[in-house]
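Hi,

I'm pasting everything inline rather than attaching a file, because the server keeps stripping attachments. The sequence lines come first, and each chain or strand is labelled.
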Amino acid sequence: MSLSARAVVGSAVAVLAAVAGFWLLTAPVTWRLLRGTTEVASTAGDAQRGRILFDVGGCASCHVTPGSQEREKLGGGMALHTAFGTFVVPNLSPHPSDGIGGWSTADFVRAMREGVSPDGRHYYPSFPYTSYQRLETADLADLFAYLKTLPPVAGRASDHDLAFPYAFRSGLGLWKLAFLDGRVFSPDAGRPPEWNRGAYLVEGAGHCAECHSPRNAFGAISGDRRFAGGPDPEGKGGRVPNLTPHADGLGKWTRDDIAELLKTGFTPDFDSFGGSMAAVVKNTARLTDEDRLAMAAYLTSLPARPGKGR
Amino acid sequence: MRIAVAALVLASLSGPALAQGDVIAQRKDIMKGVGGATRDPGRMLRGEPFDIAKVKAALAVYADSAAKMSGLYPAGSETGGETTASPKIWQAKADFDARFAKFGADAKAAAAAITDEASFKAEMPKVLQNCGACHEVYRIEKK
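And the predicted assembly:
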């Protein structure tokens, strides 16, 4: 073999190795081996308990068909316009082919925890599995059981419309290795049960930090800026408030103020805000006073961080 | 001459802009009044002593404000003055107006129905739900 032929073969092998390496590194199975848990739900979920998580998570706010007033018809289709392109929220109803009717509990747990579809494709983190991964397996099974009781809605939502290079899902494998730690919530034994309940609701199903934190160039939240407020992720020039006890944030708010806001939508000044937080309050209004106070107990315990959401 | 033309152009530009600024300022003032009026009944709902005169006063502000508000969203007042009015208002003006009509009607109905603390605690939240329900659709976050 001539020198140049060797060079060609050599570079072909190098390219193949790079492709294989990229595939291996970005395959959903790799993340699972490195970060995943093999724990499976041992019993069928309890739909009544699952309804509480459905309300904490505000699933309806994104998954209900836009314009519909029925919070139980999760046909999807809402468009989220972001810097990365337009994400379209999928059908979450138990429709056998258009929704999640054909899924097993294990499929659902994997989607919520690993951000992977039953057919093995990465989901984009616009579906906030970075928070949902904190949920305990039994709670995920309960939530799935509740979703299965809702009416099936026919019709698949259209595909996302993303800019280059975000349209390549395999890149998400690298993103997850960097930003999805795979840790289920574990209570802090040094804190009271109420605080732990609040932390679990805020950091897990409630996914509050997903909007109330600034994101880096990769679209991930950095820990030292968590809950410090940020620009509206939908980029309309708005800002999302800082939730920490800093003067830029909820510094003057008491626990009761926060719990009251989650119940009625009124701030301590009796202002009633608009937009997506009004939609969130429609969900948190359905919780118990105890759960709202627990969420407030956790939020008031956060480290104070400056940030006016710019 | 040039200065005169420039002044004319400026005047013609700023005239309607000023008028729109006025409506935006008016609706902001009215909404601030609604929020301010909610302070007393809101605190009573959170456990402060019940005072029926203050409740009726707040309900009167709501009814009066609801009647004034619909007319303060003319075409051309979509932007400016740091407004948090959503563009959706002008796409669904009939629904938007109907919500103010309902808010006013609910306030009047509550004023008739509230006679004591128990009826206050039952009726007042129904009136206040109008705020968040309408803001969810027609108010945007501050820029």
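Chain A has two domains: 47-179, 193-300.

If the labels don't parse on your end, tell me and I'll reformat.
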